[in-house]
Amino acid sequence: MRFKCVSKLWLCTIEDPNFVAMHLKHSTLGGTNWYILLTDWYFSRDQRSSLYPQKSLTLASQSEIEVPFISPKGYYGVVGSCNGLICFAETNAEDRIQRIFLWNLFTRKHKAILSSLPDYPFVDMYAAHMVLGFGYSDRIDDYKVVRITYFPDKYGRYLGEIDPKVDVYSLCTNLWQTVEFNFKCELSHFSRVSFNGNLHWLSMGIDEDRRRSFRSIITFGIAGEVFNEMALPKNCFIGITYNRAYLAELNSSLALLINRRDLIGRSYEKCYIWVMTKYGMPDSWTKLHTLDLNEGVSRFHGFTRSGELLMQTYQHELISWDPSVGLTRLLQKLGRFDLVTMVESLVFP
């Protein structure tokens, strides 16, 4: 970025869309251009996050990155990252305002998107449940933010009488618009993946025993702005009394992580890794690995480019699992944090 001040010609070249696309393609293929950003849920006064090269997740390789738009009093969540752009969201239920930021930390440029929260008569916004997603489609060369808001009915149910409201923001048009959502399910905000031009969430419903259970994968086509449903592996939850599930991307395939837990002391945990070998074909789901986890895993953060699975323990430590190495402790005592994987790019937000 230091070369942008050399001359106007160099500046025009670096910001040319063709050059940006060529640089992104080169960065994506290179193993040294991938990074991991750790953002604490509650920013300190210096408004900084920690950046690590993917190949060296140690304190010695840590870089402190200033987040320019962060307020020390605010709560910000990471929505996702695509092509080097990171999407942050801050929600103020009291003022019914949401601020979304698209940030390229490599060019130090960001864009703020301010919008009013969706409203529903006689419903307290503090009780509303919001699910977000951020993705890109090369078909239309556009980045979009999806916001799905669930309003509780008079019985406190999110799958009751009130249908969710879906708003979609387009970076190209700089506009929000409403999109139909015709599925009677609740999407998990812990698991969202942008992959193959679609956004993916795990959906949950109420089974015959009136318990919440995972039902399917809901996809959103970024180009066509249409929701669809995709089946989970058959019988993947049978025999599991208590579990959590997450979506991820592994080696250019959609992956499903199922964490089986024992409620008595959390003494026994297994993780099953499923991969959809042919995208869009549920019959191609294949169980790839079964992990014995004795660490007590509270959250999965997805895979690195080299295939390492990053996980967070109940002691707020970051650990990884590699098929050839096994479990490795990386970083200790991080507090509550979001983790996002990104590639170095010149994409302008």
TrEMBL record:
Ranges for domain F-box associated beta-propeller type: 79-296
Protein name (Swiss-Prot/TrEMBL): F-box associated beta-propeller type 1 domain-containing protein
Gene source species: Eucalyptus grandis
